Amino acid sequence: MMVSDASTEDWATIGVKILSIALIPQGGGTNVTAYTAPSPAPIINLVQLDQLGEIIGNATVPVGTYTGAVVTVSGNPTDIQLISSADPSSALLSLCNATTTVPSSQIQVQGTTGTAGSLTVPVTVNLVSPLVVTANSTNALDLEFDLSHPAFIVGHLPPSGGGTPVWAINFNGPIHHHPIADVTKFLLRDVYGIITSGSDAGITITRVFPAEPAAATPTSEDIVRTTLTLQIVPDATNGTLFYDVDNPAQNQTLKNFSNLDLSYVRVAVRYQTGGTLVAVRIWASRTFGNIYASPEGHVLHVNTATNVIDVQNENGQPVHLTVTNSTVFYQGSTQISTTGSGIAFLSNLQRGFKIHASVVNPLASPLVADTINIEIARYDGAISAANTNGFSYTRKFSTSKDNYTVTLPYVSATTANGSDPVSGAAITGFKWWNFTYPTVVDSGANAVNDFISATNGEVNFGGTPPINVSAAGESYATWNGTGWSVPWAVLDPTQIQLGRAATGFSYSAGNPTGSFTMQVPLGTQAVTVNLSTVSGSATLVYQIDRTGTIVTVTPVDITTSAGQTTVKNNLVPTTPVDVYGVPQANGTIKSYVVFYYTGVRPTAID
């Protein structure tokens, strides 16, 4: 059982407690519990799982076919942790300061059941394809918390005149099934544990989780101990790199684990066919803080003049990490060639990359990087100049020196690139999909030309200078020996500025599309926003109500006449609206999510 997430720039910690996961049998019957959290349940920081999986446990379940899962999350505001990042977007800064812990009194979890102090949120997740469990077999199930889903965290601040920001947390919708076409290609976050036994064949570790919020220098008292165990085998072919943090003279390459003693370990693992966990690198110490002190997080800044990168920790603080010519870079389980290591490689890092480092001396100040594992080389932003060779991402941050415009080539047409999530057919070359339809993958001979056509739309709201909105997306790149290449891209819904409806929502019975027009601050012309009313592909519409300090997020089903009427009666001229959508070549917006606000309006937009 694994959980993962999609990324967010604004938060250093989004901590949740997953209490249980149960599988839903095909055809009915009693749900089968596949995971129950230890007591106390650890808080899992979803921000650290940017395209990575966190193994939360192993389970033995009855043979059968399962079509869904029920994920039960703690709904107590005190069990939710929100810590803003060190350099968030201007939108978040309008609601809270950088590196700020949001008080639980300002967090409101939607859809809870139970009584105060024991609130839970059960979320039913339909599996993209059935999970078929046969005797003596291994399956991997990954459930993804989509942090970039617009309805996951909705911040609301009243207009000027006072008021307290309220953060509405909505788990229904942002949690979905993430199919794993090839388990050997699935990236896993380093696991922490205590070695309980070891032999030539492998080690057994008992999982521990760092307590949240993380202590500056964690000790054995700052961890959540569990009874969950994992069996990990050595890389018998290539060897497992072993780092003795207490005595670096003992560092070595191991092909068996018979001599490992009982200690705290951080293990970089990968799956092999059949589901066996293989150790790529192991850091061991008698002191937990020594293996945890190594920075993990998203890159905040890269300074090629001083050879220092800032890595954001889980408390939103930047950790300064010095790179030397002895620093070795990895991507996943593979060492980047020596020609790309050390100081010379720094220019290939960008803000937003997700890394986990090990340091020469965890007690030194400043910290000096021994190894840097680039878990995700993440590029995102506005897409432009797409052609048959590649395309460009333009990304702007609050700190302008971090901005980049980079042109990335596609991977070669012969590069193995996973499998189709529906058909299972092998894919080679570049692939892409819409955020709205993660299982509808465009690959093969026409993928590049289709991508070029899909990204050439632009919307103009007028104004001086003109307010233009273009297609946006994200990718994580792979190192090709001399630079980064893009194996895939996902088209994200572009967030339009908070604006107002210029004309109200209109639709006609039987028409697959409804629409309204909207304007944005400093814009001089209205733009048409189209909403799909077709079941299975309908625009997600949410009504946001605020009365006093209570914020309610209500989904509105616009595939029904009742839902369409609700939107028509409330989304009228001057109504504040938030729109996320894909700009079209005809100057309209194909919307994915629409928020409209009633009751107390959000922060003034005029």
Describe the sheet with the most strands: 5 strands, mixed, barrel
Number of helices: 4
What's the N-to-C terminus distance? Answer: 47 Å
The percent of residues in helical segments reads: under 10%
Mean pLDDT: 88
Description of the molecule:
The chain has 606 residues and is mainly beta. The chain is 4% helix and 46% strand. The chain has 4 helices and 46 strands. The strands form 9 sheets. It has a 5-stranded mixed β-barrel. Strands 22-23-24-28-27 form a 5-stranded mixed β-barrel. The chain has a 5-stranded mixed barrel with strand order 40-41-42-46-45. The relative contact order is 0.10. The model has no long low-confidence stretch (mean pLDDT 88).
Descriptive key words:
single chain; 606 residues; mainly beta; 4 domains; five-stranded mixed β-barrel; 46 strands; 4% helix
Write the layout of secondary structure elements.
Elements: E1 2-6, E2 11-16, E3 18-25, E4 32-36, E5 44-45, E6 54-55, E7 64-74, E8 81-84, H1 90-93, E9 107-109, E10 120-133, E11 142-146, E12 153-156, E13 166-169, E14 175-177, E15 191-199, E16 202-210, E17 223-233, E18 240-244, E19 252-254, E20 264-271, E21 277-285, H2 288-292, E22 296-303, E23 308-312, E24 318-322, E25 328-331, E26 334-335, E27 354-359, E28 367-384, E29 390-395, E30 404-409, E31 416-419, E32 426-428, E33 431-434, H3 447-454, E34 458-460, E35 468-470, E36 472-479, E37 484-485, E38 488-492, E39 494-495, E40 499-506, E41 513-519, E42 527-532, E43 540-547, E44 550-556, H4 561-570, E45 576-583, E46 589-599
Parallel strand pairs: 1-11, 9-13, 17-21, 18-21, 24-28, 25-28, 33-38, 42-46, 43-46
Antiparallel strand pairs: 1-6, 2-5, 2-8, 3-4, 3-7, 7-10, 11-14, 12-13, 15-16, 15-20, 16-17, 18-19, 20-21, 22-23, 22-27, 23-24, 25-26, 27-28, 28-29, 28-36, 29-30, 31-32, 34-35, 36-37, 36-38, 39-45, 40-41, 40-45, 41-42, 43-44, 45-46
